[in-house]
Design the sequence.
């Protein structure tokens, strides 16, 4: 697994790279302290046995650039533009996108805007249908505004079913948010989501997705519930749904063997 950088959509972008074969891009979610390594390290290890895997740090996260929110809007469109820029910068023609939560909404955006770039799509606990008023925003996510281990523990508990995070995981994620630019970008990202009333697309736009899609959801996901997975499948015609019991929002961490097996089967099947 190599740590690399590339200029994508005008942003110095960090990514992890491993393996060879058909290209697969892993796109992490938007929780505080998220990045390519913390969210995907175990997935990269398995996927790279069969595919060329790229795990990107999204704009504002990890080691990728974090523009000052005073002059940059941390919007869905900014993340879609960045992801398209990454695909183009790597000179990839047809990729499989695997997106968790906010990374799922960015992957959906690419599949809608640039369908010729997307071979297959895996949406795991994906955003894209989340609408709420400001009082309905996911509080453990939006309330995280300073580096705090107990607040991080509460956030992880909200994102999982019965998962017990290690002290090492909590320390890693808190350490990432201790960087002032990272924290400012995170607060701006959550603020944009609250102001917009969620991370969502119009259903008619989602229905334009033509890439074969696997929709994975934890049965106990409190952030993006099962009904959203079923709605995605109703809207995206060439789609399959895989539900995982005793699993919340982080299938790749809570139930990695199950998630990896279902995803690799989908990526390898004849369509």
Sequence:
């Amino acid at each position: 697994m190599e740590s690399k950088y590339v200029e994508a959509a005008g942003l110095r972008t960090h990514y992890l790279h491993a393996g060879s074969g058909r290209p697969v891009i892993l796109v992490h979610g938007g929780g505080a302290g998220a990045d390519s390594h913390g969210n995907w390290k175990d997935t990269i290890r398995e996927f790279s046995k069969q595919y060329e895997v790229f795990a990107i740090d999204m704009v504002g996260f990890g080691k990728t650039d974090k523009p000052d929110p005073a002059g940059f809007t941390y919007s869905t469109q900014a993340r879609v533009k960045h992801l398209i820029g990454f695909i183009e910068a790597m000179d990839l023609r047809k990729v499989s996108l695997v997106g968790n939560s906010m990374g799922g909404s960015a992957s959906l955006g690419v599949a809608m805007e640039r369908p010729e770039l997307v071979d297959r799509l895996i949406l795991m606990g994906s955003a894209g249908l989340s609408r709420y008023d400001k009082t309905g925003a996911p509080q453990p996510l939006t309330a995280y505004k300073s580096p705090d281990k107990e607040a991080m523990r509460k956030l992880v508990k909200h994102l999982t079913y019965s998962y017990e995070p290690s002290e090492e995981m909590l320390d890693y994620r808190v350490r990432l948010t201790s960087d002032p630019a990272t924290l400012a970008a995170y607060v701006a990202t959550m603020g944009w989501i609250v102001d917009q009333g969620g991370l969502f697309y119009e259903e008619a736009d989602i229905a334009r997705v033509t890439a074969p899609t696997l929709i994975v959801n934890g049965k106990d996901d409190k952030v993006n519930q099962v009904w959203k997975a079923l709605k995605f499948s109703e809207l995206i015609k060439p789609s399959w749904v895989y539900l995982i019991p005793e699993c919340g929002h982080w299938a790749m961490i809570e139930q990695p063997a199950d998630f990896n097996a279902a995803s690799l089967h989908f990526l390898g099947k004849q369509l």
About this structure: The radius of gyration is 17 Å.
